[in-house]
Structure formats: structure tokens, C-alpha cells
């Protein structure tokens, strides 16, 4: 009996970029400033950040403002663009990748249907969230509103049981971020344990990564609260910093909670009290140095 002719293999319409090699890379501006909410719960109110002449306005999509977990996709996309530039390739504005490579990089070994659904929802929030800022990139300032992703398309594969599985993604990052990566090239490598951290820990790691290049930094708890974009009480942040200090949670950096007496005052019933300023000190971890080897006698 003659064999039936083999069916041609279906080729993806998407022209795939190579998988990401090496470490995840982040651009300085999106590391330094609180562009993303810290909670996984939908934040449906506008956000405004003003500090040291920097202004950021954020409008939510119908499903909320992009979160720190949604930011993982943006970091992955930025890494692919930075990788192409480092390899001497022409960095196209459109970035195409396989969803499974994104999960590999972010430490999801066996992505579930739920993981893929959350991935698709994150793409929607990144495309729907609107940002306006006076932070310049590539010596230009965008005066209007922009989204993190100006375009996002996905390709699904139909499974035998009728389910659809997200396979390939094509996105176009906003001009603001694309200029920053291509022209400013203020690119930092991320430690692989970053993806194991909670949202506030991620922000603390990013801030330390931006400012600890030349040694320790110290920032008041109030400024840290603003810088990370926290919407919770200051007391809660203080407790978390104590826990991070005690458990040595941050990769690459040590964290210390510092309380300094700055004066005295009299309270409402005449008792003398000490004024205390609480700060957070972050510094690079000391690298262990191997003992020198001695030649045998």
C-alpha cells in the first residue's frame, strides 16, 4: 500500500528572534522610578509621582495598571533588544519570541494553562497602561501619553483536546523605552534570583543596583517608601526592611535599617522624647576571597 504524502510542516508566520542568552538586562530609567504597582490586585486609579523635578503620571487600563510581575515581560523584551545591539545586529523595533523561552528565563519550569493566561493578561495591561513623564530618553522627551507596548500580537496553537496554547509573541516596545536601550545604553544585568523576590524586594534590589556602583548608599525610610512606589503604611515597610535585613534576602546587596537620634522634644504631657530618623543603608555584598595556595615544600 502506497504511503500517503507527508503533510507540510506548518510554519509560524512570526519571524522568531533568537532565545535570550546570559542574564536578563534592565534599562536604568525603569529600574530607578516607580512605574509599576506592587500589588497583583487590579489598581484602577490614576497614579502620580513627583520628586526632584521628575514627574510621572500613570493611567490604568480596563484591567488595571501594569504590575511588577507584568514588568518581567518588559525586562525580557529589553534584554532581547540589548542582546541584538551587543551582538552587532540591527535591533528591530518589533521583537518576536517564544512564550516558553520567557518562562525559562523567569524560572517557570513547567508553565501551566494558568501561567499562560496570566501572561496574556500581562500583555494586555502593558499595552493598555498609559504613561506620561518628563524623563528624557535618547535626548528626547515625549510630551504625550504612551503605552509600554505600542503593539502586541500572539499566535496560539490548537491542542488535541480543543484548548489553545499561546506559543509565539510579537511586541513593539514604546519609542521612549526603545530609544533608552538603543541610544542611552544604560543597561544593567539582573541577578537570576531577582524573579524569586517579592515586589518591594525587587524595587529595593533595583534601587541598590542603580546607586551602589561606587559603594554604600543611605536613604531615609520616607524617601524609600516614595521611591519604590509603596502605597502601604510606612510602619509595614519598616517591618519588611527589618525582615530583609535579618534574612539577608537581597541578592548582591546587604541591607541595614539605621535609626539615628537627631534631637529631643517635649510631648503633649511634658515628657522628654528623642527624635529618631530611620534610614535604610544598602551596600554591595562582600565577595569571599579564596585563601592563597602554597606550593609544596
Automatic annotation (TrEMBL):
<dbReference type="Pfam" id="PF10134">
    <property type="entry name" value="RPA"/>
</dbReference>
<protein>
    <submittedName>
        <fullName>Replication initiator protein A</fullName>
    </submittedName>
</protein>
<feature type="region of interest" description="Disordered">
    <location>
        <begin position="276"/>
        <end position="297"/>
    </location>
</feature>
<dbReference type="InterPro" id="IPR018777">
    <property type="entry name" value="Replication_initiator_prot_A"/>
</dbReference>
<dbReference type="InterPro" id="IPR036388">
    <property type="entry name" value="WH-like_DNA-bd_sf"/>
</dbReference>
<keyword id="KW-0614">Plasmid</keyword>
Amino acid at each position: 500500500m502506497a504511503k500517503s504524502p507527508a503533510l507540510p510542516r506548518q510554519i509560524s508566520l512570526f519571524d522568531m528572534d533568537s532565545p535570550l542568552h546570559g542574564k536578563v538586562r534592565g534599562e536604568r530609567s525603569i529600574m530607578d522610578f516607580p512605574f509599576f504597582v506592587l500589588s497583583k490586585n487590579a489598581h484602577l486609579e490614576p497614579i502620580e509621582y513627583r520628586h526632584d523635578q521628575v514627574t510621572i503620571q500613570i493611567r490604568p487600563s480596563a484591567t488595571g495598571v501594569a504590575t511588577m510581575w507584568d514588568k518581567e515581560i518588559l525586562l525580557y523584551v529589553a534584554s532581547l533588544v540589548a542582546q541584538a545591539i551587543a551582538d552587532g545586529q540591527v535591533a528591530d523595533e518589533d521583537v518576536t519570541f517564544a512564550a516558553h523561552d520567557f518562562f525559562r528565563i523567569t524560572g517557570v519550569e513547567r508553565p501551566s494553562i494558568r501561567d499562560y493566561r496570566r501572561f496574556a493578561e500581562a500583555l494586555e495591561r502593558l499595552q493598555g497602561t498609559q504613561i506620561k513623564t518628563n524623563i528624557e530618553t535618547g535626548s528626547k522627551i515625549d510630551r504625550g501619553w504612551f503605552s509600554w507596548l505600542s503593539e502586541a500580537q500572539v499566535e496560539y496553537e490548537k491542542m488535541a483536546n480543543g484548548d489553545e496554547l499561546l506559543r509565539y509573541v510579537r511586541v513593539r516596545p514604546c519609542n521612549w523605552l526603545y530609544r533608552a536601550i538603543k541610544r542611552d545604553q544604560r543597561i544593567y544585568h539582573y541577578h537570576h534570583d531577582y524573579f524569586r523576590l517579592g515586589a518591594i524586594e525587587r524595587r529595593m534590589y533595583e534601587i541598590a543596583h542603580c546607586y551602589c556602583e561606587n559603594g554604600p548608599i543611605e536613604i531615609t525610610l520616607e524617601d524609600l517608601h516614595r521611591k519604590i512606589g509603596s502605597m502601604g503604611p510606612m510602619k509595614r515597610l519598616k517591618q519588611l526592611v527589618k525582615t530583609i535585613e535579618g534574612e539577608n534576602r537581597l541578592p548582591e546587596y546587604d541591607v541595614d535599617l539605621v535609626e539615628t537620634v537627631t534631637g529631643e522634644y517635649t510631648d503633649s504631657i511634658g515628657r522628654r522624647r528623642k527624635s529618631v530618623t530611620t534610614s535604610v543603608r544598602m551596600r554591595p555584598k562582600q565577595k569571599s576571597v579564596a585563601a592563597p595556595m602554597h606550593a609544596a615544600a
